[in-house]
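Obj: model holo form, ligand = flavin mononucleotide.
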Amino acid sequence: MIETLWRPIKAGDLELNHRLAMAPMTRSRSTPAGIPTEMNAEYYAQRASTALIISEGTQPSDDGQGYILTPGIYTDAQIAGWRKVTDAVHSAGGKIVIQLMHVGRIAHPANTPHGRQPVAPSAVQPKAKIFTMTGLQDIPSPRALTESEVASTVQDYRNAAAAAIKAGADAIVAGSAIFGSDDYAAAISRIASKYGAETRLWSATCGVGTPENTTSMRRGLVTLVGCP
Ligand SMILES: Cc1cc2nc3c(=O)[nH]c(=O)nc-3n(C[C@H](O)[C@H](O)[C@H](O)COP(=O)(O)O)c2cc1C
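Output (holo structure tokens):
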């Protein structure tokens, strides 16, 4: 087992030196505009000896943000911020995947750039609290997305995936509280009837290669959003 850990492996298009990867962890260290900074670059570069870093959840849109000071990947400034991170990781010999994450209802207006009510497949309030700049607050009830808003959220994922590759990411991982949570079973059935059962598969990677290189890990959301 220990020996296997240190053997190289090919994961999709990625050649990894060994099999230790860093799990995604929200750090809440970006700017209020969702821009990764030098501090983020230093943090990830310090961890580049793992074969693969999976970044903290990164919102594909204003609506996709829910926690404080998380990074986005949908503006030019955010792409430039992520470029600092990917360059630092690559210089240190590592590889980094950007995790796209729309938080769905696990959000608070105080943590978003626009201060609007969170959106989710259905208007079901989570029984939980969330950290904001003024301390722990109840998570409010979200507004249910319309069918056309679901389609534009999918488009946000497409754009963000392309932006992540532009920012130098070795791949993207698409996670989503909107498409993946069992709490939304009824709403997911509604969405699934339109987009297919693959909406239930919450995690997928999309390499930089061609669609022909599709691996089983790339099903699910990537089937939905396509590769950049
Ligand atoms: C502070 C913190 C932040 C986290 N942020 C994310 C995140 O942004 N995206 C994600 O998919 N998982 C996130 N996680 C989940 C971790 O990746 C997960 O805890 C880790 O993979 C270990 O799995 P386990 O908790 O099931 O043992 C976070 C966990 C912690 C403790």
